[in-house]
Amino acid sequence: MKVVTVVGARPQFIKAAPVSRCLRRRETEILVHTGQHYDPAMSEIFFEELKIPRPDYHLQVGFKTHGAQTGEMLSGLEEVLIREQPDWVLVYGDTNTTLAGALAAAKLQIPVAHVEAGLRSFNRQMPEEINRVLTDHISDLLCCPTKTAVEQLASEGIFRGVVQVGDVMVDAVEFNRALANDRRILEQLGAKRREYVLVTLHRAENTDDPDRLEEIVSALNELESSMILPLHPRTRNRMERQGLTFTNSRLKVIEPVGYLDMLQLEMNAAKILTDSGGVQKEAFLLQVPCITMRDETEWTETVEQKTNILVGANKRKIIEYVETFHVDFSKAYPVFGKGHTAERIVELLRKNGGCR
Ligand code: UD1
Ligand code: UDP
């Protein structure tokens, strides 16, 4: 079996690593990097740390408007797929890279497998929501992380090829937990266990809306907790353009970190304040209370279990919940599976080879 895997953005490298490792034991994988993320700290570091093989093709698309970025990927991927003639194209998550990979394959009648299928925010203002819906509707194998995702697909009339496999990020956390323990980022930053809040901020709905961005930056500038913020380049760019700066001496702003340092920062944090999808899930898996700067989330189970709270871009709420939010994880039940999701995905690809 020959599988073309399409990745391009940070969370996809992390999700693809366990599947790629498993796939390459017996099958052929051709790895395509679209170049959506290109800074060494957003791309290269994950290939090195997670021992992902070098991409067979690098499309070097870089940052463009949505249409131009997706279109350039589509045309580059089409060429690759015509040359490689794979049995499957494997895509992850909800980025422009995901949609381009799925669409290029579907147009060529090559079966598409979507990992993290069935997630919805029901907010069509998000580029990711458009990417998810379209990708799911042209996929042949839909690997769902949760029961909610399976039910969502059913409500959209998608039944064929839908399988609840668990979340591949559980595999990633479990595989890397011990390695992350040995990192020295806490020591390097002079941070102490459970005495800081880990912050991430990059979602377009926050960074591209001047009012929301100002409100969040203002909250971070007023918070009294120690904080560590590995800053996404998108947020850095937008803040510069808007003339916003961080002025709080308790807030340590650092470059984006690799996955192992990130895990160490997450598992030792007192709380996590984020607008990331992946980080919300990791907070749950690592049992760290999560405060999410969004108005809705795809990971509704974490909110239902009261381990995650949505505060939007509301300064008062951000400050209040960072100071007061506590979670009793003894009552939480697992919703993302127990790992071994990568093996399950590879097995499904084998069983359903060429089902289009
Ligand atoms: C993308 C995904 C988002 C995902 C995020 C993960 C889409 C529509 N969005 O958002 O779903 O959560 O990745 O991090 O696919 N930039 C750099 N260096 C890089 C990468 C980006 O400086 O290596 C800058 C770009 O110049 C641009 C901004 O970051 O200003 C946005 O990059 P882009 O790839 O469009 O989207 P992300 O915000 O990273
Ligand atoms: N991450 C990382 N370094 C960072 C910030 C995040 O390794 O500086 C990891 C994080 O642990 C998670 C993934 O990147 O596994 C989430 O990616 P991101 O927040 O960029 O995107 P999203 O999940 O929101 O699509």
**Share in helix:** 40-55%
Spatial gap, N to C terminus: 15 Å
Q: Could you tell me the number of beta strands? A: 13
Return the average pLDDT rounded to an integer.
97
- For the record, the CATH class of the largest domain is Alpha Beta
3D structure, described in words:
The protein is an alpha/beta fold and 356 residues long. It has two domains: 2-166 and 339-352, Glycogen Phosphorylase B (Rossmann fold); 175-331, 3-Layer(aba) Sandwich (Rossmann fold), CATH 3.40.50.2000. Helices cover 45% and strands 14% of the residues. It is built from 16 helices and 13 strands. It has helices at 10-23, 44-49, 66-84, 96-107, 127-137, 147-155, 168-181, 185-189, 204-207, 210-222, 233-242, 259-267, 277-285, 300-304, 315-324, 341-351, and strands at 2-7, 28-33, 57-58, 88-92, 112-115, 141-144, 162-164, 197-199, 227-230, 251-254, 271-274, 290-292, 308-310. A seven-stranded parallel β-sheet has the order 3-2-1-4-5-6-7, sandwiched between helices. The chain has a six-stranded parallel β-sheet with strand order 10-9-8-11-12-13, with helices on both faces. The mean pLDDT is 97. The structure holds uridine-diphosphate-N-acetylglucosamine and uridine-5'-diphosphate. Uridine-5'-diphosphate binds next to α1, α12 and α13.
